[in-house]
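During the no-cost extension, the postdoctoral fellow (Dr. R.K.) reprocessed legacy sequence entries with the updated structure-token encoder. One reprocessed record is reproduced below for audit purposes.
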Amino acid sequence: MAIRKRKDLDIDCLKTYFEQIKDTPLLSFEQELDLSKKIQKGDEKALNKLIESNLRLVVKIAMEYQIPEIALLDLIQEGNMGLIKAATKYDYHRKVRFSTYASWWIKQTIMRALSNKKRIIRLPHRKEEKLRKINIMYSTLYQKLMRKPTIEDVGKELNMSTNEVKKLINIVNRTVSFDKETCEDSLSLHEVYEDYSYDPDRVFMKKYLKEETMKFLEKLREKEKQILLYRFSFFGGRKYTLKNISEKLGISPETVRQIEIKALRKLKKVAGALKEYSYN
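Re-encoded structure tokens follow.
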């Protein structure tokens, strides 16, 4: 009886919320850019208008992630937090629609909430990120190989051992299998995590994050910047070894290591803002 009352209350709250936001006018691209200019000057009214005009976008995205265990209104509230974050960071100079930019932030906050609430044990941030990388690589290889990738396929591409990939997959609450067809007690990894094989919001944010990272790297000396670019796969996705870099720059591997450590220490002091763009 209590559960039914709670559900009825949730439905009533949803109806009230939908009534409140349904008639808010949508913005044109020009209006979005104009609001962004005002927001960057500290205009609170402009910020509120940009947020309120996109509340329906949050509802649309939240409905795509709806699961029985979590109330839709809770997902909407989480998504609204991402919307607020996006509105404060939206930059008119980039000439991109706000919905494209905001969708990434909204999805991130919703996915983070789902991840935290669905698991009995919360995953460390690094493991969560590795699981996401496994899923992305699975989707990529599925299209490239025209078959279901094996754990070995995925591990090889990510420079991870088969055992590590297996352990990460087994962390997920329900049994996940690469090799078996979906059944009542088994899900493929492809179904447990979202498919990012084509996601325009994610493509935009990846490009945006790379550009922001390059701005931070400009604070370094040229050799420091070069070494970090080689070490962190900025050149064609390949991660260079200390030896590879030493051969390219004509210095010893130990010198490369020392310069890398020094450069990372410098970045650590100024690059805290980049953490907001990572899913953790």
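The longest strand covers residues 175-176. The chain is about 65% helix and 0% strand. The remaining legacy entries will be reprocessed before the final report is submitted.
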